[in-house]
Amino acid sequence: MRALAVVGARPNFVKVAPILHALEDVPGLEVRVLHTGQHYDRALSGSFIEQLDMPHPHHHLGIGSGTHAEQTGAVMIGVERILAEERPDALIVPGDVNSTLGAALAASKAGVPIVHVESGLRSRDWNMPEEINRVVTDRISDLLLCHCEEAVENLAGEGIAGDSVALVGNTMIDSLMRLLPAARAGGALERHGLSRRGYVLVTLHRPALVDEPTRLAPVIELLDDLARSLTVVMPLHPRTRARLEAMGAGAAQRLTVTEPLEYLDFIALQDAARLVITDSGGVQEETSALGVPCLTYRDNTERPVTITHGTNRLVGVRPDALSAAAREELARPFAEGAGQIPLWDGQAGPRAAEAIAALLATRVSSLSRRAA
Q1: Which one from 68, 205, 237, 309 is the annotated catalytic residue?
Q2: Position 149 in a domain
């Protein structure tokens, strides 16, 4: 048996690594890794592979940046070629980026069963490219691995249920739990001159925010003002850096701006933050697992479980609402203790591997019967 796992962006590596580790224990199964190159700098891809102890990719498409159509099309063409070479029994795709959709479409056309990791998440916002990617990928997948009960319910509401859906938990939290001790011991706070609970950590990268100067500028002004009273650390996604530079060097003069952080350092900074402000889906999950308050600067979230069971709060895309929520949160005593989200227990990878192994065994059995 052979499976091909496709990764392309930072969250993909974090989600798929625990599954790859668990699949190593499945007899008679070879897993190959294809990196599309959607994220191509070291901090956003290369170091993640090393720190997560993932197999070095067997294939690298090197698609780089581009429009949604350019990226998705390039992934489809590249993955189609690799599928013809590898002839896998299943394709594993995590998340909701363009690499996920492009690879799934290529596999669907080639008749290769698709395993979608993190299925069933819904924001109901069709202006988000990720929503299109995740919904279409779910529709053409053969095995849908869900990280919370709400995702299972979303799929059932769309007519997807039964043996093709498996509630396995959140594999991203597996990676977080496994590497948290190393992250805490890595000295990231000291290198950045930070103290535990003495700073706010900010990540903003979504095009709907950072590509629009009239939306980004007020947020940066707010954060710069917040930095008068508490250090505000902002690792810059390349997209956000380019937009800030276009706005002028003085736009964020009080912020502590860094390059994109490697995974262990970013975990360490999340773990020790007093508050996190983000528009990232994965950060909503990680902060909930760590018990760190999170303010999500979006009008919606595909991860409402982080609100009902975790530490996340949705504030909308309004600078005044974000300012009020941040000052309200910082006025409270910090409450230690992680969020309690079912199946976010560090064992989602083995559960996902078990479901994938069952799918592969069924496929191989079916092919054998046809050959006979």
Answers
A1: 205
A2: yes
Residue 231 belongs to what H/E stretch? Answer: strand 231-235
**What is the reported pTM?**
0.92
> Is 54 a domain residue?
yes
Q: What's the number of domains the chain is made of?
A: 2
- Domain region containing 253: 186-331
How many alpha carbons lie under 13 Å from residue 268 in its C-beta half-sphere? 20
The Cα–Cα gap between 164 and 142 comes to: 6
Whole-angstrom distance, CA of residue 31 vs CA of residue 56: 11
**Is the domain of 198 the same as that of 159?**
no
Region 115-141: mean pLDDT is: 96
Residue 46's pLDDT is what? 57
CA 225 – CA 21 distance, rounded (Å): 44
Q: List the 114-117 sheet strands across, edge first.
A: 59-60, 30-35, 2-7, 90-94, 114-117, 143-146, 165-167
Instruction: Give me the amino acid identity at 332.
Output: R
In a domain, 263, yes or no: yes
CATH number of the domain within which 50 lies: 3.40.50.2000
Note if 59 is an active site residue: no
Question: Are residues 223 and 148 located together in one domain of the fold?
Answer: no
pLDDT of 365: 73
- What residues contact residue 152 under an 8 Å CB cut-off, 6+ apart? 120, 146, 165, 167
Judge contact between 80 and 110, C-beta under 8 A.
yes
- At residue 251, the pLDDT reads 58
Calculate helix-pair angle for 213-226, 319-331, nearest 10 degrees: 20
Give the model's pLDDT for residue 339. Answer: 64
DSSP string across 103-140: HHHHHHHHT--EEEETTT-----TTSHHHHHHHHHHHH
Structural domain contains residue 177: no
